[in-house]
Amino acid sequence: MSVAARKPRISKAAFAAVMRDLVPYVGQLGIRVQRLGFGTISLVMPASRQLLRPGGTIAGPAQMALADIAMYGLVMSRLGRVELAVTTSLSINFLRRPAPAAITAEGRLLKLGRRLAVGDIILRSRGQPEAVAHAVVTYSLPPAKGLAD
Amino acid sequence: MSVAARKPRISKAAFAAVMRDLVPYVGQLGIRVQRLGFGTISLVMPASRQLLRPGGTIAGPAQMALADIAMYGLVMSRLGRVELAVTTSLSINFLRRPAPAAITAEGRLLKLGRRLAVGDIILRSRGQPEAVAHAVVTYSLPPAKGLAD
Amino acid sequence: MSVAARKPRISKAAFAAVMRDLVPYVGQLGIRVQRLGFGTISLVMPASRQLLRPGGTIAGPAQMALADIAMYGLVMSRLGRVELAVTTSLSINFLRRPAPAAITAEGRLLKLGRRLAVGDIILRSRGQPEAVAHAVVTYSLPPAKGLAD
Amino acid sequence: MSVAARKPRISKAAFAAVMRDLVPYVGQLGIRVQRLGFGTISLVMPASRQLLRPGGTIAGPAQMALADIAMYGLVMSRLGRVELAVTTSLSINFLRRPAPAAITAEGRLLKLGRRLAVGDIILRSRGQPEAVAHAVVTYSLPPAKGLAD
Questions:
Q1: Does the CB of C142 have a partner CB in chain B at under 8 Å?
Q2: What are the chain B neighbours of A69 within 8 Å (beta carbons)?
Q3: Beta strand pairing status for A116-125 and A57-58?
Q4: In CATH, which of 3.10.129.10, 2.170.120.30, 3.40.109.10, 1.10.510.10 is domain D3-140?
Q5: Of A8, B47, B82, D88, which one has the greatest count of Cβ atoms within 10 A?
Q6: CB contact under 8 A, B61 and A59
């Protein structure tokens, strides 16, 4: 069976609860799960007055929080609920100023090793084809949770 | 007169207001200005329940927000209140898990050009000598605000 | 006409000459053009004793040179022969140790603006499906060569 | 005894031989060791026709190779000759176009853990005060060579 056909190891509802409950600073963003596969994810962060910054656009820190939690979801989609997986690096390029609208995140895994996972995330203004930001995120995995390198 | 001796082009109080008011998602963090020079900055982000994540440590997105706003301050310390300066990239390495305590940010400018500013920021658990994270942040400057390249 | 159907603005032969002649430190790598589209590129770097490092794998600096020149090609595929486009940042994650074999690079453009281009590049050991490295590269474009932002 | 007072665990001559012999693609650059401390390093890469690129400046890949080998030296200055330490990520910002002259690299360690080392490197045109590039480099350490986290 191909990877694409396998079921994610955490449900949409369970990962939505992770986002809502585990880290309040991220939970307040109200991010929703659009799609969750075995190593793929699509999230949407609604716009709100709280996320605006001068210029009438979405603040960078909210976009970074979205990219980071998307990678958390990619990891859990393959390994199940590994709360103690932690970000070890995040590198983001802001490509275009997003409209004051919802932002979607599409993620893919580039590597899932024994100790480390790496993925990249494209952020878009909802409904627009062009990327507003692109992030590469690495997570350190708790012992005995990752796959063989 | 050396750069070190020059006065910052925004006051501590004025930059504290920028942090509090311009971006609510960052303003809620209650970040305070410890020191502001002409191209140097020191901020402190108090700990709070809201910033915790599993493992009893400070969430990465809060650390990234702190690094990003520290760079905003570095830019304003040289150019004055340029609200429309925007982050174009941020790259952070998380080096150690911080205690659930206040985080300090020390920033320095690596380049201040006509169109682009680059700086790096070291984050520490308050009172500890070792870095918990290191970020490199670039900002795009509004026309006619930056210096000659 | 879709972007995918448009022809690249530099030919494979012309870009192969750019790689061979403009930067001798990269030219010596003998990189070949496999495929060149309008905003897409595929290169191959042959293995050689010169590129090995301890552990019997391909040295990181050679992989970085390959990613960097692939982005140069992406830019020229859209804008023609803009020799004065220069790298402004490169961020690479090494994901797996490559075999001492040829390395392929597949690139895509994430943004082509008036002043800045951003792309990402996946490196693989030739014939293997999994990435050995992933790079994000930004180039600064000479005035009047980029597109409208 | 303070860290600053401790002697490096590899000599200048031994690390010069590492640079010259272990990776021919880097060895050809003729990089010299100016200073080597316990967790600090200063290297100089002489200019040569081979390193030039259009615009009469030093090619980015040569600067990246210099930053990468400087981090290798930082690791060996603390752990001795650990040839199998490998780069896991490198992120570089090119800040100013260097003159066609020698480039110096000054490195410092930000973290030396059990499995991972992180440092940053500032590149300058020799004799100039301002940075031409700034890199952050992470290395993975072979088992039982790194320090306790």
A1: no
A2: 61
A3: unpaired
A4: 3.10.129.10
A5: D88
A6: no
